[in-house]
Each structure stands twice: as structure tokens, then as C-alpha cells.
Specification:
It is a single chain. The protein is mainly α and 218 residues long. The chain has one domain (48-215): Butyryl-CoA Dehydrogenase, subunit A, domain 3 (Up-down Bundle), CATH 1.20.140. The protein has helices spanning 19-32, 36-39, 48-68, 106-123, 146-174, 178-194, 207-215; strands at residues 82-83, 89-90. Strand 1 and strand 2 (89-90) form a beta hairpin. Helix 4 (106-123) packs antiparallel against helix 5 (146-174) and helix 5 (146-174) packs antiparallel against helix 6 (178-194). The longest helix has 29 residues, at 146-174. The protein starts with 18 loop residues before the first helix and ends with a helix. Zn(2+) binds at residues 74, 79, 163, 168.
């Protein structure tokens, strides 16, 4: 792929013994039960912001790895715009370096996105971070803008799922990764639905798939 080594990195593990590690272990254990609705629920007595932070890190890692498997098929020529089918196109702006939304290729958009997510630790002005390896510090309050930043990150990560499903699902099938992609996306959707983290209009590109996944768990 053409992604820069700066933004495509193997995931860093949450240190053993930390509270975030225990939360991640709890999430993995409940995921293993097969009940994704239960797996996304806030564990009793836990802080909502911390739960959202830990899971956002995990989704960032998952999507980074899933996209990493199809980068050779997602190129400037194959995907000259960042889209999710013919009806949905995404333009990039981060409000800092690029204030006016720009039209760019899918690999460029996703490169911007992954770099932006990693840079959030500097903009939250706190020991807290959504970035792997830079964890929440007990006793330090989350920044006031934490929830809005988390929602923006998750909204933009959804767009990577949408692009993969609409533009590269045939490649995913050839690589025999559809089960992995579907499970990851289902976990993601149940999580954002549980805490109302993404506006329904943003989910429109994959609405039929979301309804199909949800109907199986009713």
C-alpha cells in the first residue's frame, strides 16, 4: 500500500495491571460470550468516559488493521474520492491544518484521519488520550470536550467501514476476512447505538446492513 509508515502502525497494547487493561479484558470476555449487546454495556460502577475511551482505542486499532489488509486495492486511481457508494462522498477537514473541507482520494482521506486521531492527545490538553499507549491517568478528569472529540472520531471511523463495505467488499471476500469485518462492524454499531454516539443520518450509507445485523439479535 501507499500509506505512510507514520500513520500505519501495529497496535500498541494497553499495559497489564492498568485499569484500562482490566476494562479491555472485561470487554474481550463479554465479546467471547457471543452476546454483543451485553458486551457493549457500561460495566457496573465504571466511568462512562473511560469506557468510551478504551473502546474507541480498540475500534481504532481494529479499523487500522482491517484497512491495512486491503490497502493495495485502495489506491489513488481505484478510489480517487473518499466515498461509500455513489450517493455518499466525504471531504476532509480537521479544523486546524485543513479548515475548509477538501476533496481527496480514499487513501489520502484515511491517512489524514488516522494521523488526526493520533494527534488528538496533543489537543485534549490533558494526560487523557484516546490513542493506544497513551492512557487515562487515574484521578485526572477528562477534558470538557472529550465526548465531542470521541463522537467525531467514531463518526469518521464509521466512514472507513462504509468505504470498505461499498468499495472493497469483493476484496474482503477474496481474502476470506468477511466474518472478521462483519463481527468488528457489528460490535462497533452496537457500541455507538448503546451510547448514541453517531447521528442516525451519518449511518445512512450502511443502514440496510445495520438493520440486518440488529434484527438477528432481537
Amino acid at each position: 500500500g501507499s500509506r505512510s509508515s507514520k500513520t500505519f502502525k501495529p497496535k500498541k497494547n494497553i499495559p497489564e495491571g492498568s485499569h484500562q487493561y482490566e476494562l479491555l479484558k472485561h470487554a474481550e470476555a463479554t465479546l467471547g460470550s457471543g452476546n454483543l449487546r451485553q458486551a457493549v454495556m457500561l460495566p457496573e460502577g465504571e466511568d462512562l468516559n473511560e469506557w468510551i475511551a478504551v473502546n474507541t482505542v480498540d475500534f481504532f486499532n481494529q479499523i487500522n488493521m482491517l484497512y491495512g489488509t486491503i490497502t493495495e486495492f485502495c489506491t489513488e486511481s481505484s478510489c480517487p474520492v473518499m466515498s461509500a457508494g455513489p450517493r455518499y462522498e466525504y471531504h476532509w477537514a480537521d479544523g486546524t491544518n485543513i479548515k475548509k473541507p477538501i476533496k481527496c482520494s480514499a487513501p489520502k482521506y484515511i491517512d489524514y484521519l488516522m494521523t488526526w486521531v493520533q494527534d488528538q492527545r496533543w489537543h485534549l490538553l490533558s494526560k487523557h488520550s484516546l490513542i493506544p499507549g497513551c492512557l487515562c491517568v487515574p484521578g485526572v478528569p477528562f477534558p470538557k470536550n472529550f465526548m465531542s472529540v470521541a463522537k467525531t472520531i467514531l463518526k469518521r471511523l464509521f466512514r472507513v467501514y462504509a468505504h470498505i463495505y461499498h468499495q472493497h467488499f469483493d476484496s474482503v471476500i477474496r481474502l476470506q476476512e468477511e466474518a472478521h469485518l462483519n463481527t468488528s462492524f457489528k460490535h462497533f454499531i452496537f457500541f455507538v447505538q448503546e451510547f448514541n454516539l453517531i447521528d442516525r443520518r451519518e449511518l445512512a450509507p450502511l443502514q440496510e446492513l445495520i438493520e440486518k445485523l440488529g434484527s438477528k439479535d432481537r
